Every structure is written in C-alpha cells, then in structure tokens.
Amino acid sequence: MALQCGIVGLPNVGKSTLFNSISNNKAEAANFPFCTIEPNVGIISVPDHRLKILESLVSPQKVVPATIEFVDIAGLVKGASKGEGLGNQFLANIREVDAILHVVRCFDNDNIVHVDGRVNPVADKEIIDTELQLKDLESVEKKISRVEKIAKSGDAKAKKELSILQEVKDTLLAGKNARALVLEGEDAKAISDLQLLTAKPVLYVANVDEGSLHTGNKHVDALRNLVKEENAEVVMISAAIEAQIAELENEEDRKEFLKEYGLEESGLNKLIRASYSLLNLITYFTAGVQEVRAWTIKRGWKAPAAAGVIHTDFEKGFIKAEVIKLSDYQQYKTEVACKEAGKMAIEGKEYVVQDGDIMHFRFNV
Fold this sequence. Notes:
Largest sheet: 6 strands, mixed
Distance between the termini: 22 Å
Oligomer: single chain
Helix content: 40-55%
Number of helices: 14
Structural class: alpha/beta
Order of helices and strands: EHEHEEHEHHHEHEHHHEEHHEHHEE
Radius of gyration: 23 Å
Shape: flat
Strand order of the largest sheet: 2-4-1-5-6-7
Number of strands: 12
Strand content: 15-25%
C-alpha cells in the first residue's frame, strides 16, 4: 500500500520548493501564485537502514524499498471553497490523499511575496482550515438533505445517520475540523463516503529559514500553540536547505552537508517518519535471493491481511506465516540457520505482524 500525502498551503509558503527537493518530478517554482496548476506527484523511496542489513545478509538480485507519494497541490487561497483560484479543482485533488502535509510559512523574507502581504502562520492556517471546512460543510449539507427524506419515513438507520451528520455539521459551523470528532464503527460509516477534507490526518510543516532550523522562531511558536488542541505534530524543515541537499547526488556529500548544519537527518526523512507515525504504519520485509522488499501495512494488522498486500491470493488462501526477527537474522546469518536454532516462528491467522518482521507466507488457492 503506497502512502500518499498531499502538500497543501497558501501560495508562496515553500510548497513547490519543498516538493522539488524531495521528488524527481520538478514542479516549477516561481514568485507568484498558481504556478503549479496541476498536482505534481513524486514517488519517493522510503529510507530504511534495515534493508541494507538484509541486503548484506541475503545478497539478493535487487532491493525494493517501500515508497511514499507526495502530491504537490497548487496553492489554495481565500474563497477556494467557492472556486476562487481554481479552488474546486485543487480541493478535489486533496480528497484523494491519505494525509495532508500543511506547509506553513514561518520565515521572513522581503524578496518572497506573501499572498496577503504579511507573514502570519496563525492567519495562514486559519484560511486553509476555513476553506476546507466550508467545502466539507457543502458535502455534509447535501447528504443531510438526502438522508432527511428517508429518516422522515421512520427508517431507524437513516435517523441515526442523520444524527451523526448533524453533529459533524455543528462541528464545522463552530469552525472546527471534522477530525475533532472521534467517530468509530457505524458512526464513522455515516461520513466515510464523503471523504471529508478536514477528517484527514494532518501534519503541520513549519518552513523556516536556515538560522531557525534548530531553535525555531516566533512564527513556529505561534503555530505550535495554535495546533496544541488538535494534538497534531509540527515538523520544522527548511525548504531552502532541502533544495540544496537534493542537488547533491553523492550520499557522502549529503552526509557532510548535513553535518555542516548540525543535522543528523534531512527534512525529508523527518517528514516520512512523521507521516508513518501519523497514519500508524509499519514495515515488514520479505527476503530471498531474487529480492529483498519492504512492505507497508497498518499497525495491528494480522498475518493474512499483511500477506494480501503482496497479492490478494496470499490472503484468500493463507495457511501460515514463517516469521524471523531481524536481530535473529543478523545473529544466525541465514534463514536455514535461524530455523535450525528455533528462531523461525510458525504463525497462524491471528498473528499480529510486528514492525521489522521478516516473513514468508504459505498459501493455497
């Protein structure tokens, strides 16, 4: 399952600069709004040191990392929910992603024009939130008008659904995002078909200048204080630095560059880790002479569902899973040696896959 994150924000906050720095797809970056008219999609390999360990042990023909898709969605503006600045088109793009990376400008630079003529991360965030909420409100009200007719006939299920929809509507009218409501089971199904924009998980990306990368600044503090109630994470990156890193093709040069700035990892790595955490994702591996591959699944998935990520037949005809822990693989060096040492577990349908498991599935269709 490829994770897809949509990069959103006002024009000229650094979205396309960030996207260009982490993707082989180069979105045109310029100092004016609506430079990115179509959503650009970049497929990025997820860095994982465990793949290198397995490669050294197995010596496969190829290594296939997990991937994450970043979608650069053109800058939203006030009135986007009503179609301003091609807003309807851009909002439709957001519906398709798993999570939202909301880039907020947290740097001062007179040479880069802000769409509203000032740097105010609080106001910027509220503009985006309002536009997404208004679009969601439109979707919810349309469904309410449909469900109301059925509920009036006495249908119990429709009455319950209408109650949930009204609760979501009240939340949006109060200026809050739909994700503020904790809906589960049947309650969640009442709005699942709407793909509400403000129900999607969000990660705030504070784009700072080089000097603020370690300590932050007043803009970052204001943003963190604003999202405190949402229990949302704020990741600080410098799109300008990421752009410079992207130009370095040699890995050693990149390490040296990061060292010069006192950084242990790139902003891209931080974003990927935070995105996986946001969506509660983990990685398991398959390892053989033909290939070593990383697979992304939801935390808590059982073995058959994890097998289904490889192929639906693996899930349908699941018999068992052979599981080796990476630490044991490192110690005993080969799959055969792990098995002989009793370090290969045979797990059934109820086994909950753990992050880093090395798995081989037996199935019959």
